[in-house]
Amino acid sequence: SASRAHNIANLNKTPEESVAGFKDIVDKAVSYGLGISGSIAMSFGSPWEHKIPISYVTAIVDAYINVGVTEISLSDTSGMAMPKQVYSLCSETKRLYPQVKWILHFHNTRGMGEANIISGMEAGIDWYDTSFGGLGGCPFVPGAAGNVTTEDVLHMCDEMGIETRVNLDRAIEIANKVKSLVEHELQSYILKAGKNSDLIL
Questions:
Q1: So what's the pLDDT on residue 138?
Q2: Catalytic annotation on 90?
């Protein structure tokens, strides 16, 4: 966690100490030809510190690189990220660490998920986590919502002419199946309103 207070409260270690402890795991995975992806929770804000200084994030990136991890997710676990901040942090981390494959992971707690994805794209990030129906959340964050919704993001990209190579109609089918499995309403706008193209008479 980029929130030092969060990491210490949960693991009794600094974030850098936590990542340093992954070295044996990384070495073992690499010996078997497995890829490793690291994640930095609370990269954009936390209920403990509110704003997260970029130095907190880069210290963890350095620790990951030191143990051989060069695929890293910047995660908005608390759902506090805002588009301008996303663009700034992603532009700077891409500049500082061109060798890293960056992934962005947004929660839609305050309705900023898709706007943050657009800002991430403008900063040059092209890998994103989403979930069908917007499932997910964080038990440590009051009012936390699920992850950005797969079908909403795909619909946005389709409408903007951004190629994803993911079939939106199949994603909607899966999200409806998820809805039936969990037996409650989901956060998906597309499940509620349908695609724009559904409105053509």
A1: 72
A2: no
